[in-house]
Write a structure and sequence with these properties.
This protein has 116 residues and is an alpha+beta fold. It has one domain: HIT-like (HIT family, subunit A). It is built from 2 helices and 5 strands, in the order H-E-E-E-H-E-E. The protein starts with 5 loop residues before the first helix and ends in a 9-residue tail after the last strand. Bound molecules: adenosine monophosphate. Adenosine monophosphate binds next to loops.
Length: 116
Amino acid sequence: MSDKTIFKKIVDKEIPADVVYEDDLCLAFRDVAPQAPVHVLVIPKTTSLRSLDDVTADAQSLIGHIFVVIQKLARELGIAESGYRVVSNCGENACQTVAHLHFHLLGGRGFAWPPG
Ligand code: AMP
């Protein structure tokens, strides 16, 4: 039985996704249950990072790269001017459901603070 996460299956093209960006290091695709008019998930292709809690100094350039991609996507998807939110749920209390590091890019509506 495969122990791949759903996101690794998307990286490996075993299941479909609405991909909006891809390069050697990361992949971005639309969330299947969008919480805002724009809701994209940006993930590293590596499976070595299950959450932000696994990030070490070795991953600094990868994480920096992902944030540059997030900024580029926010511009391309038309939410940079109005504003957007980037979220990474880490662990049980934060409601993380997929054990593969991912960043939610959300925009196209106003958000409340603090989050629920
Ligand atoms: P989190 O709760 O932070 O772990 O976020 C996981 C996200 O993955 C949720 O917003 C889900 O809607 C999303 N998701 C789960 N399966 C898929 C899929 N096959 N394609 C796109 N998004 C997915």
